[in-house]
């Protein structure tokens, strides 16, 4: 199953996409790049948390999403640019994060506080050196992930109460 199909099967309802990564550390910027490329859609919030995702916990929890998708560079000992869909339990076996708060802890908090489905899209970095540009492999993967997410988000089904609420918001702002 391709990435878009996996995401489409997995995402539902209100979705928060949280891009994680330091834009000054090469391939670590991939998650931020993906978040910045998510199109505005009803019931979707895209947040570029950069290297301080802990600063956005309250904003994510307050939205009470049904699905939370985190994107970050993860060293899962594969070819640079490789992509893996990881649960919190799968993430525990990988190298520590370059961020202050481990992504696995962030995922636990989101699961506990929102009861949402939480998934990490990991991108294998070639490097995370300071002030180095992103590798071609990571940039290509980030672009492909953003495209797959945008298509999957546009095609997902929303619960009837969300559709009605989004329709009312549109009528009030017109």
Describe the 3D structure.
This protein is an alpha/beta fold and 174 residues long. The chain has one domain (3-173): Rossmann fold (3-Layer(aba) Sandwich), CATH 3.40.50.1450. It is built from seven helices and five strands; from the N terminus they run H-E-H-E-H-E-E-H-H-E-H-H. The chain has helices at 3-10, 30-36, 57-63, 88-91, 103-114, 136-155, 160-173, and strands at residues 15-20, 44-50, 67-73, 83-86, 117-123. A five-stranded mixed beta sheet has the order 2-1-3-5-4. Helix 1 (3-10) packs across helix 6 and helix 2 (30-36) runs parallel beside helix 6. The longest helix is centred in the C-terminal third of the chain and has 20 residues, at 136-155. The mean pLDDT is 88.
Please tell me the total number of domains. 1
CATH topology descriptor: Rossmann fold
Helix coverage percent:
40-55%
Order of helices and strands: HEHEHEEHHEHH
Low-confidence stretches: none
Distance between the amino and carboxyl termini: 40 Å
Helix count, DSSP H or I runs of 4 or more residues? 7
What is the tally of beta strands? Answer: 5
Mean pLDDT, nearest integer? 88
Task: State the CATH class.
Answer: Alpha Beta
Structural class: alpha/beta
| Strand percentage | 15-25%
From the 3D coordinates, which CATH architecture would you assign?
3-Layer(aba) Sandwich
What's the Cα radius of gyration? Answer: 16 Å
Looking across the biggest beta sheet, what order are the strands in? 2-1-3-5-4
**Morphology call:** globular
CATH superfamily: HybD-like
What kind of sheet is the major sheet? 5 strands, mixed
